[in-house]
Amino acid sequence: xYYELSPRKQAILKAIVDxxxxxxxxxxxxxxxxxxQFVLSSATIRNEMAELEALGYLEQPHTSAGRIPTELGYxxxxxxxxxxxxxxxxxxxxxxxxxxxxxxxLDKLIQNAGxxxxxxxxxxxxxxxxxxxKNTVTRFSLTLIDENNFLLVMVCGNRSAKTRFVRTDIPVxxxxxxxxxxxxxxxxxxxxxxxxxxPYLMQMxxxxxxxxxxxSPIIKFVxxxxxxxxxxxxxxxxxxxxxxxxxxxxxxxxxxMLGMFDRxxxxxxxxxxEGTNDVTILIGKEKGVQAxxxxxxxxxxxxxxxxxxxxxxxxxxCRMDYSKVVSAIRYLSDGIADAMHPRPSLxxxxxxxxxxx
Amino acid sequence: xYYELSPRKQAILKAIVDxxxxxxxxxxxxxxxxxxQFVLSSATIRNEMAELEALGYLEQPHTSAGRIPTELGYxxxxxxxxxxxxxxxxxxxxxxxxxxxxxxxLDKLIQNAGxxxxxxxxxxxxxxxxxxxKNTVTRFSLTLIDENNFLLVMVCGNRSAKTRFVRTDIPVxxxxxxxxxxxxxxxxxxxxxxxxxxPYLMQMxxxxxxxxxxxSPIIKFVxxxxxxxxxxxxxxxxxxxxxxxxxxxxxxxxxxMLGMFDRxxxxxxxxxxEGTNDVTILIGKEKGVQAxxxxxxxxxxxxxxxxxxxxxxxxxxCRMDYSKVVSAIRYLSDGIADAMHPRPSLxxxxxxxxxxx
DNA sequence: TTTAGCACTTTGATTAAAGGAGTGCTAAAC
DNA sequence: GTTTAGCACTCCTTTAATCAAAGTGCTAAA
Lengths: 357, 357
Fold this sequence. Notes:
- 2 copies of one chain form a homodimer.
- Chain A is built from 12 helices and 10 strands.
- Chain A is an alpha+beta fold.
- In chain A, the strands form 3 sheets. The first copy, chain A, has a 5-stranded antiparallel sheet, with helices on both faces.
- At the A-B interface, strand 4, strand 5, strand 6, helix 9 and helix 10 of A face strand 4, strand 5, strand 6, helix 9 and helix 10 of B.
């Protein structure tokens, strides 16, 4: 698809995107000739720009403004034209000081990553602790608190556990809980989380005799817990950075963004983007999310021992300093993975056994 | 301080604040006479307004606009003039549906409280789970996973639970865990979290015989969990609601707010505001926080058994529908407290100082 | 194929004028 | 003494008009 662009067109496109990223003003033919990098007249450049526009890489805000890149233009830029950015000493120092902090705790690392990222790039940062896709329920454990309250613990295959306090109007005791626990384990233990649906859980009701009244709260909690387990913890830092970019002064855009930050699900879906294990760049509405119009999301998964444990990234206007952002994200994501990897020390979560039991 | 206001001045002030809260436009003398509630000419009202301005309750955006309340004006309004707002059927239903969810888990309740609050009031909601300094460990529960792994669950007095996977090189089985659990419960259950220090935990080592090797990961976990439990978790919902109020279109204000939401410490400090146990209203820069200029924070602590376990509130423009907000917050805060500590007639949760086992 | 030249469009900033809202003050009425 | 009608004044907002700047597309020549 891209081969249709002559080297000269590519060079012009690159120059336009670079300039637009830097200034935010539409760039005209004259500005390019003045930058000395082309020995062409503005008229020639105008012709090329007109063709780039016809091909869909550029657009004009209005008849007589300069050109700005379209989503396709940015796409081509990041795929083929963008140069690597070498992080400065100061930037490296900032990133390292965070990574060197003596904690191998993923939560903390990811939390800090967001802050550092927002600070360094001057875009809003996102950081997510991500549970790996396939997960099973290992077992349930019920702990009596008093006759109207017990604690439900759901232990998952990926070494995580969810707890939930359950209040019940039907008095319970150790024996009842034992019984309940067996039924629950028979029904749900060992199953993949995704196969635990509401209708499936309903079947439990029959097995509980006089305690079938307990089933509905429990079903709800199991269902919630399953949902929660699939829910990842998304942090967003530096929301106020959005305001530094005029594209978000339009209050409609800003509202879209803030709404998305609030809801989070949409954002998490975008982060699920499979594919590459390197930095992923989503430009504008590429993935069909309306609220992303005019914005780009750049992120990289954090992979430890072949498992995705989270991701860090940045969200900002399409007119984003991609090369710097990509370098920073790559460095940070890899750095966190490194920090997580070594030293199996006390109290840490052990690496997953291939089989237990 | 307030006695200097004649009843008529108070009525006029109230009418102005009410009108301004509703429309957001400065209100002039004519508008008040047209509202039929005063049998006075606009000239008389103008005189009163001029005096109210001299006293510091009103101000004019410019020479020939109407008047708007000053911070002092709002203060007097909420302290003395504001009428109670009766929540509508629909609003009550919304609040109740959240409270009725059969979970006594504070985290979830507070999480949902924020969402419901933002939705109901149309202002940005804040919800904080505040560990009261005083929290106790109710009990421990150990669940075997396989001979080298078990799950440690710590149940706290304030209805929260922490879990941790423990891997051990010393093979364990149900009996060992039972024994461990007893030792743990003897040592730690019922104690205030703040009294659980590292040296104290170390003493456990002696009681465990051949399993004393297990103690160190457990100690680390308990210690971590205690720390985590003391951390306050501030959630902010409905940030995009800010954009519905023209006072935040001024991008400076908006940036201040978003910055404050990002940092959180400042906000947490404001929430620490002691004093009343009812709804607290902070207007503008009253507490010396620059970023709060033009904004108000309304919140109420959630108190269970005399202990503050969190708070819910709302943040928005000074021109806020205080009466509705206050009603909603009061209802929700009390409702959560109830849900955490249901009526004793059901004989449910024993007060935390009760003996355990 | 490239370029110089030029007419054309659109934006943004500036200015001027008109309209509106609300006030403060004065003097008269209650 | 209080209240009110009347009126001049101030300041904001909107609209329209003008002007300069920026950038383009097109044509014709190099």
